[in-house]
C-alpha cells in the first residue's frame, strides 16, 4: 500500500505541521488520517510499515509520529529506537499505540503510550499537547 497523505488547505498556519502515522491496520490508519484531516489543521501521512516510514522520513521531516506497537517485521518499539538514533528525530514526539503496551519498556525513549482502543478526542488532545511543547 503506498502512503496516504491528507491535509487541510484553508489553514496555512499549520500546513507544515506533519504527523506520520505508522499503522498496518488499514481501517485504523484511514480513520486516524481522516480524523486529522477533518478535525485538525495538521497534515498526516499514513504508512503501513516501519520500513516504509524510514523511507518517507528521508524526504519529509515530521513534527510527530504515531506508531502502532505491533507492526510486521519491525515493531513500533524498534522503530522508536531507530528514530531516536537519528539526529533529526531524537527529540520528535512519539505516540506508541497498542492494546498490549509493554509497561516501562519505552520510558527512556521519551515516548507517550496510548492504549487501544483509544478515545479519539483524548488522542487529539495528546497530539496537541505534544506539539505545543
From TrEMBL:
> What biological processes does GO assign it?
phosphorelay signal transduction system
Q: Which residues carry this modification: 4-aspartylphosphate?
A: 68
Q: Which UniProt keywords apply?
A: Phosphoprotein
Record domain Response regulatory: where: 18-131
Record keyword Hydrolase present: no
InterPro entries assigned: Bact_response_regulator, CheY-like_superfamily, Sig_transdc_resp-reg_receiver
What SUPFAM superfamilies does the entry give? Answer: CheY-like (SSF52172)
PANTHER family, per database record: RESPONSE REGULATORY DOMAIN-CONTAINING PROTEIN, STRESS RESPONSE REGULATOR PROTEIN 1
What is the name attached to this protein's record? Response regulator
Amino acid at each position: 500500500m503506498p502512503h496516504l497523505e491528507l491535509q487541510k488547505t484553508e489553514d496555512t498556519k499549520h500546513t507544515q505541521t506533519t504527523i506520520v502515522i505508522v499503522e498496518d491496520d488499514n481501517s485504523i490508519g484511514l480513520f486516524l488520517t481522516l480524523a486529522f484531516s477533518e478535525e485538525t489543521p495538521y497534515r498526516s501521512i499514513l504508512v503501513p510499515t516501519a520500513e516504509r516510514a524510514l523511507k518517507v522520513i528521508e524526504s519529509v521531516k515530521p513534527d510527530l509520529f504515531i506508531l502502532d506497537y505491533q507492526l510486521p517485521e519491525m515493531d513500533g518499539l524498534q522503530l522508536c529506537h531507530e528514530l531516536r538514533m537519528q539526529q533529526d528525530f531524537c527529540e520528535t514526539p512519539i505516540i506508541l499505540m497498542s492494546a498490549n503496551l509493554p509497561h516501562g519498556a519505552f520510558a527512556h525513549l521519551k515516548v507517550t503510550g496510548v492504549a487501544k482502543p483509544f478515545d479519539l478526542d483524548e488522542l487529539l488532545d495528546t497530539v496537541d499537547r505534544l506539539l505545543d511543547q
